[in-house]
Design goal:
three-stranded antiparallel β-sheet; 5 strands; 4 helices; 2 domains; single chain; two-stranded antiparallel ribbon; alpha+beta
């Protein structure tokens, strides 16, 4: 005979109270599972929030990168120097490869003196003023391919055997 039956015989409990006690016992048995399920659901929600946050951060980075590329494109296209009629081959390096642009003699002189620069635009190269190249360099250092700067002449050592031989600025290689 179970405790329930004994309590009912003694008159201390009726059938309604017994059913209620059985129901509460079942609920207690379910609570650990419900609690762990609730904890798992909260953990899954927290992970989803973390993934969403990371995805949004990646989207924002991509959006910022596209905006930066658009700014560089706009600066280059708005300030590019026309190379039409260029008959002098000007060679420079881009990613360890030797490239060649045909420019005018005046543009060649300006490139040597650091007055204009070469920037990368898509698969080609364009000439822009040095001021614009500096703005582009602040946005993306790798877009500026060639930007010559004039440096103060260095002191010539007395025992330098080649001191008498000056290197011309327009030396082509």
């Amino acid at each position: 005979m179970s405790l329930k039956d004994q309590l009912m015989k003694a008159g201390l409990a009726d059938a309604k109270k017994a059913r209620k006690a059985v129901h509460e016992k079942r609920q207690e048995a379910k609570d650990p599972n419900a609690e762990s399920a609730r904890a798992l659901a909260q953990q899954a929600q927290a992970e989803k929030v973390g993934r969403d946050r990371e995805l949004n951060r990646a989207r924002e980075e991509e959006k910022a990168q596209r905006a930066l590329v658009a700014q560089i494109r706009q600066l280059t296209e708005a300030h590019r120097i026309d190379r039409h009629g260029g008959d002098v081959a000007y060679q420079f390096t881009d990613n360890k490869k030797i490239k060649k642009l045909y420019v005018t003699a005046a543009q060649q002189d300006q490139l040597i003196r650091g007055q204009i620069a070469i920037v990368r635009l898509d698969d080609g190269h364009e000439l822009v003023p040095t001021v614009v190249a500096e703005k582009i360099r602040t946005r993306d250092e790798h877009s500026v391919v060639l930007l010559n700067t004039r440096q103060a002449p260095t002191a010539i050592e007395e025992d330098d055997p080649y001191a008498a031989y000056q290197i011309p600025d327009d030396l082509m290689w």
